[in-house]
Amino acid sequence: MANRAAVFVHRLSGHSLSVRRLSIYGSRLTLHARRLHASSAGRSFLSTLLQTAKTKNPITAQWNGQPTHETHPELVAQGETTPGILQSEYDQRRRNIVDSLPDGGTAFLFSAPMHFVSPHVFHEFRQDSDFYYMTGWNEPESVAVLQKSATARRGYTLTMFVRAKEPEKELWEGPRSGLETAVAAFGADEAWPIRDFAKRAAKLIGGAHPVYADLDGEHGLVRSEQCGELRQILQRSNAGARV
Fold it and tell me: Which residues contact 22 (CB under 8 A, 6 or more apart)?
């Protein structure tokens, strides 16, 4: 496990960058999922706050993009993120990466893209191996951001950008797990809609701290749209990033 983490950091280390630190947290709470303590009051507040499509639509309300304990307790036991793998195991994998980062370092991890046969016919989705190893999340159009922080409860923060619940699209394209599930079942401290990635990525990049991101697709394949967006942000910073 440690060896895999070391190899992963080595793969990312060629893309370091120093930019001006900006505040991570904003004051707006719209569609912003934050981890709350496991109390009945906290859960009640969270369900009231997160009035997204998942909580409103009776058809897709119980749908997730992959099995979770909430939807498939016969496959995913309590305390597990994916079948047979505990939440604590994913947390330890992320810690192995974070421990290899300098103080304040930030690592961007990108999901695999969807590949289409034709405009409306797509290949079976296969998640990026590194992204899945670190998160267990099995959907496209997703980004995980790890930030090393001495003040964070776990020694790091995990921010995820994922597809929000959209009942009409889910009826045709399949279910999505959404923002709430990213926080409740996959260990994210915050979750934002993937459409907000470009405008929020700069705020997640630390000041004089390095940024790690594997932006190069294998075999000439496009890695993801968000890779391109991050590349543009880094290039605009004029900090000499190797991307």
Answer: 202, 203, 204, 205, 207
CA angle (203 as vertex; 200, 206 as ends), nearest 5: 140
Q: Which residues contact 64 (CB under 8 A, 6 or more apart)?
A: 70, 71, 175, 176, 177, 178, 181
Burial of 239 (0-12, 13-18, 19+ CB in 10 A): middle
Q: What is the pLDDT of residues 39-52, one digit of tens each?
A: 555 544 444 444 34
pLDDT tens figures, 170-225 = 888 889 999 999 999 999 999 999 999 998 998 888 665 789 988 876 555 567 88
DSSP 152: S
* Global pTM value: 0.74
CA atoms of 167 and 176, how far apart (whole Å): 9
Tell me, rounded to whole angstroms, the distance of Cα 62 from its chain centroid.
21
Whole-angstrom distance, CA of residue 56 vs CA of residue 112: 29
Q: Is 136:160 a contact under the CB 8 Å cutoff?
A: no
Tokens linked to 173:
């394209």
